[in-house]
Amino acid sequence: MTTTSKNKPLRGVRVLVGRARHQAGSLSAALRKQGAQVIEIPFIEIRKPKSFRPLDSALKNLASYEWLILTSVNGVDAMWARLARLRGKPQSLAHLRIAAIGPATKKAIEQKGHKVDVVPKEYVAESVVRSLRSKVKGKNVLLVRAKVARDVIPNELRRAGARVDVVEAYETVVPQSSRRRLRATLRNPKKRPHLVTFTSSSTVKNFVELLGGQKSRRSMLDGVRMSSIGPVTSATLRELGLKVDIAAREYTIPGLVAAMVDAVASACSK
Questions:
Q1: Distance (Å, rounded) from C-alpha 114 to C-alpha 136?
Q2: Does position 155 have pLDDT exceeding 80, yes or no?
Q3: Contacting residues for 250 by C-beta, under 8 A, at least 6 apart
Q4: Which domains does the chain have, with CATH numbers?
Q5: How many CB atoms lie within 10 A of CB 147?
Q6: Distance, CA of 23 to CA of 33 (rounded, Å)
Q7: Which residues, 6 or more positions from 222, have their beta carbon under 8 angstroms from its beta carbon?
Q8: Which of these, 126, 135, 61, lies nearest to 97 by C-alpha position?
Q9: Could you tell me the end-to-end alpha-carbon distance of the chain, in angstroms, rounded to an integer?
Q10: Which residues 6+ apart lie within 8 Å of 136 measured at CB?
């Protein structure tokens, strides 16, 4: 990595961004603003669920719920798109108290014209549970999320006395089209990233799957540092045999970029 400057602390640093193609822009723009050379290769692809029937049923029966929990911007976009497809009215959500897992999800909900009642202090499932446990006893709760997700929220809220319905609004898959490009990039000394960013456990799992066997993975990742957005993502990196070189203190895109800037500045000062 090259010596940093005050205005462009990531100048000369190649950063691989693996977010879904339609979501990479915000992270890439923030990194470029800091001077980074950004390489975009998606580790994750967002698709419609195999069936919309459970989501449609929940949306047609919103009057029966008192709480709505959304854990990602993808969930917000998918739910509102489906509500529009069903010709549902925005007023059908007016009675609901809404919880969002973090500021990006909160902003997406507010852009749809709805108030968010709860955002946890830390943007992980465990913190959502802590924020809601005392509020949901005896309540009907709708959790809208991805097909594959951790069950911390529904399990713990049920233990707290809530009746929780979990519906899938989208699913995440491995983008096979990224496989060849990712491997070629990591094997090319002139293109190989200094840093790889991970914004969810799914991005970690898919990255490992795209790389293939452990032996080839080790050689491709020699000297490449891993950057994690939060503790759940970090745990997945470690479980799959990867190091966590940089971890965001605030579990957001700005927090991730700030952690990378601090890490590069620290490395250059030694």
A1: 20
A2: yes
A3: 258
A4: 14-44+175-269 (3.40.50.10090), 47-173 (3.40.50.10090)
A5: 13
A6: 17
A7: none
A8: 135
A9: 12
A10: 67, 157, 160, 161, 162
CB atoms within 10 A of CB 94: 11
Backbone phi, then psi, for 225, in 5-degree steps? -100, 145
> Rounded to two decimals, what is the model's pTM?
0.81
Q: How many Cβ atoms are within 10 Å of 110's Cβ, its own excluded? A: 14
Closest CA to 79 of 49, 50, 101, 107: 49
The DSSP symbol for 262 reads H
Tokens of 173: 């898959």
pLDDT tens-digit profile of 171-191?
989 999 999 999 999 999 999
Distance CA 239, CA 227 (A): 15
In contact, 229 and 255? CB cutoff 8 Å: yes
CA separation for the pair 202, 212 (Å, rounded)? 16
